Task: structure prediction
Amino acid sequence: MIELVLDILSWVLLCTGGAFVLIGGIGALRLPGFYTRLHAASLTETMATILIFAGMILQAGLSLAAIKLFAIMVFLLLTAPTASYALANAALQSGLRPVAQREGEDA
Amino acid sequence: MYVVVSLAILVTMVLALVRALRGPSVYDRVLAVNMFGTKTALLLAVIAFLFERPDFLDLALAYALINLVGVLAVLEFIQSKPRKAEAADLD
Result:
C-alpha cells in the first residue's frame, strides 16, 4: 500500500518535472529578448531539478543512491542560480538592455 | 516512466542547441550552453535509473561540477573584454 502511494507520488513528481523541463526549453527558444530567455532557462534549472530529483529519491528509498541524488540536487541548486546571476550581471554590465526598456527609449 | 522524462530532457537539449546556434548575442549562446550542461547532468541521473546502473550518478555529479567551472570561465572572459575597451578609451 505504502509502496503504491510512493510510486504514484514519484510518477507525478517525475511527470511534472518533465513538463517543466519541456516548457522551459520551449520558452528559452521562443521568448523575445535575452532576459526573458534567461528566466525560462532558470525555471528548468531549479523547479524541474527539484521535482525530478525528488521523484527519483522517492523511487530510490533509503540507500546510497538516494544520498548521491540528494548531493547532486543540492549542488545543482547551489550552482545553477549562481551561473544565472553571473550571466545576467555580465550581460547588464556589457550594456545589454531589457526589451521593454529599449522600446521605451525608441518611443 | 523514466523514458518519458528522458525524452522531455532530450527534446529540451535539442531546443537549447538550436538557441545556441541561432542566439543573436553571445550571452544567449552561453545561456543555451549552460542549460545544455545542466540538462546533461539531469539526463545522466535519469539514465542511471532507466538502465538501473547507479554508477551513472557519479558521472552526473562530475558533469555538474565541470559545467559550473566552464560557464564561470567563459563569463569571466566575456566580462573582462568591455572593461579593457573602456580603459583603453579613458587612456
About this structure: The mean pLDDT of chain B is 83.
